[in-house]
Amino acid sequence: IFLGLTGHRLKGSDLKHLGIATHFTLSENMPALKSDIMSSDRNSIADILEKHESETLAPFSLDPHRDMIESCFSDAPSVSEIISRLKRHNNSDLAPKLLAALSRMSPRSLVVTHKLLTLAPSMTYEECFVMEFNAARECVRSGEFKEGVRALLVDKDNDPKW
After folding, report:
1. Integer Cα distance of 18 and 57 in angstroms
2. What are the CA-CA distances from residue 142 to residues 51, 130, 138, 139 (Å)?
């Protein structure tokens, strides 16, 4: 829910820590990795990835904030509850940044995203795709989507009127 609502960006090593990525290599190793992959057959990809796997990973970037994130986002029944919880975390340097980021986002989209992420674990992939398609269609039809495009891409004033 945290990543889905905030859009917080993770580093490559973070993806490995979370189990989202199966392998991680440093940026400076990418040209050699790409070259090895391009000159190989598909049966040797796993070996190539292992060969270029970084031996050490940077610490998970959100570790210092893990308790705050879990207490604010886990099992929160609504976006307004998440915001209330974040406001109570005045000892965290990340909480005010998250509050600022959330305040710039479409309130409707936040509520819809929270609902989708809450419902998805009990659904099949097909059900999730249908649910997301329907939600995306409704978001595009809403005035908030148009206003977000205007504020970010057309007028570039970054001041949407939700």
Report:
1. 12
2. 49, 18, 6, 5
Q: In a structure prediction context, what are the per-residue pLDDT tens digits for the chain, which is 162 residues long?
A: 999 999 999 999 999 999 999 999 999 999 999 999 999 887 789 999 999 999 899 999 999 999 999 999 999 999 999 999 999 998 899 999 999 999 999 999 999 999 999 999 999 999 999 999 999 999 888 888 899 999 999 999 999 998
Work out the widest C-alpha separation in the chain, in whole angstroms.
55
Give the CA distances from residue 157 to residues 10, 99, 120, 147, in Å, rounded to whole numbers and listed in that order: 27, 20, 34, 11
Question: From CA 61, how far away is CA 17, in angstroms rounded?
Answer: 10
CB 123 within 8 Å of CB 132:
no
Give the chain's length: 162
Assign 162 to helix, strand or coil: coil
**Structure tokens, 26:** 């440093």
158: alpha, beta or left? (left if phi > 0; alpha if psi -120 to 50): left
Q: Which two tokens stand for residue 57?
A: 């990973």
